[in-house]
Amino acid sequence: PRPTESELAILNVLWQHGPSTVREVFEVLSRDKEIGYTTVLKLMQIMTEKQLVNRDESSRTHVYKAAY
């Protein structure tokens, strides 16, 4: 599936910074525009379902990385 504009912004953060938590992605995105933490969380959960990102659930804090 093609990523939306918001999903692409998240993918760009993951491509630039490598595997990251939701909080880390949120902190980068919130520098440029006003966005809520829960919005980033929900988008990343949807992106996991779409297989745009992979989620490592081995620790308490989930770490996401771009699938491609």
Q: Major sheet: order of its strands?
A: 1-2
What about the largest sheet? Answer: 2 strands, antiparallel
Low-confidence stretches: none
Report strand %. 5-15%
Distance between the termini: 12 Å
User: How would you describe the shape?
Assistant: globular
Task: Count the E strands.
Answer: 2
Features:
mainly alpha, 68 residues, 2 strands, two-stranded antiparallel sheet
Secondary-structure map:
Layout: H1 5-17, H2 22-32, H3 37-49, E1 53-56, E2 63-66
Antiparallel strand pairs: 1-2
Give a structural overview:
With 68 residues, the protein is mostly helical. It has three helices and two strands. The protein has helices at 5-17, 22-32, 37-49, and strands at residues 53-56, 63-66. A two-stranded antiparallel sheet has the order 1-2. Strand 1 and strand 2 form a beta hairpin. Helix 2 crosses helix 3 (37-49). The chain is globular, with a radius of gyration of 11 Å. It starts with a helix and ends with a strand.
Short description:
The protein has helices spanning 5-17, 22-32, 37-49, and strands at 53-56, 63-66. With 68 residues, the protein is mostly helical. It has a two-stranded antiparallel ribbon.
